[in-house]
Amino acid sequence: MSIKTANPSNIKDAAEIILSGGLVAMPTETVYGLAANALDGKAVAKIFAAKGRPQINPLIIHVYNAAQAERYVVMDERSRRFADHFWPGPMTLILDKREDCAVSDLVSAGLPTIGVRCPAHHVAQDLLMVCDVPLAAPSANASGTLSPTAPMHVAQSLGDKVDMILAGGSSDVGLESTIIDARGAVPLILRPGSITPEDIESAFGVKAEFGFTNPDAPTSPGQLLKHYAPNADMRLNAVDLQDDEALLAFGSIKFMGLTSGGFVKDLPNERVMNLSESGDLYEAASNLFAYLRQLDDSGFKRIAVMNIPDTGLGIAINDRLKRAAHK
Ligand code: TXA
Ligand code: MG
Question: Which ligand has its closest atom nearest to the C-alpha of 147?
């Protein structure tokens, strides 16, 4: 495995690896993806093997624009409005496969639909254009662990299982894309992300509904209960800190105390990481996985997490935290 700066010559090499059936980790604005040629069943199988991912959990494909998507899926009118408005960007649309769809059946795990995303990151765009095939790409981490938002996270999680890591900085958004089934009259959000129901309502005047499984009561495959998990145990909505815990903070910690006495603000930096001192949910999302990793590596057996408001982008952050905390 090699980590390469994403410049035109390395992007060309990455495309060659992909077109000859290999795996490349590519930067996107949400998280790093583990990319393979979606038309090549053997290459797609390597993704499942590298991640240790159950084959019943379908992958999404990435395209450089909606016209490329239409070679493989049907763009109904409602979905097209979403694509026109939110692509390129952190949104995956669930679309019907075309009858002559050349995408490997392994990608959709036998479903008649495929999740399709057009990423906004310029490196992902360039790689997609040079390859000119759709790229199947889940997050570039071992199944069930935290998604990677930096090249080093990929190297630590997958090592030699990936042929090349294209380094393109830290992922801006920091949370996986919002997955939307926009085919019906009511848009369904299957995975919350940085495109929120408020964004959808202000774009089209329709109220989206959450169709994602509550981590406390799962119903469908692919929404694994324990997901995005650190090694440490997690305690959510903490209002104080216990002796054996590190703290993932949000907002002011001025008045937060230790159960054994004293104040959290006086603790060493490696024990307290603040997602956003000013309480900015976008900043918090972009720091979430990297900070959880750092606290997990700090040796504490437990991570306490302060309350994060369950509105707007906070819904997606809390979804990931609940899955991370699930035992
Ligand atoms: O931001 C992202 O979406 C990242 C970057 C790399 O693009 N990718 C990503 O992929 O998060 P992955 O495979 O980790 O998550 C895709 C999710 C899975 O939970 C899967 O079950 C669901 O999408 N999914 C895939 N195809 C589906 C389908 N046809 N219907 C419903 N859910 C689907
Ligand atoms: Mg994932």
Answer: 2
In degrees, rounded to 5, the angle at the alpha carbon of residue 190 between the alpha carbons of residues 188 and 196 is: 70
- From the centroid of its chain, how far is CA 77? 27
- Host H or E run for residue 234: strand 233-235
Domains of the chain: residue spans and CATH: 3-210 (3.90.870.10), 233-325 (3.40.50.11030)
Instruction: State which H helix or E strand residue 62 sits in.
Output: strand 60-62
- For residue 317, give the amino acid letter: I
How far is it, in rounded angstroms, from Cα 158 to Cα 226? 19
Based on the number of CB atoms within 10 Å of its own CB, is 20 exposed (0-12), middle (13-18) or buried (19 or more)?
exposed
Token couple for 37: 């040629």
pLDDT in tens, 177-200: 999 999 999 999 999 999 999 999
Check pocket membership of 58 for ligand 1, CB cut-off 6 A: yes
Which ligand is in closest contact with the Cα of 31?
Answer: 1
Spacing, Cα 177 to ligand 1 middle (Å): 8
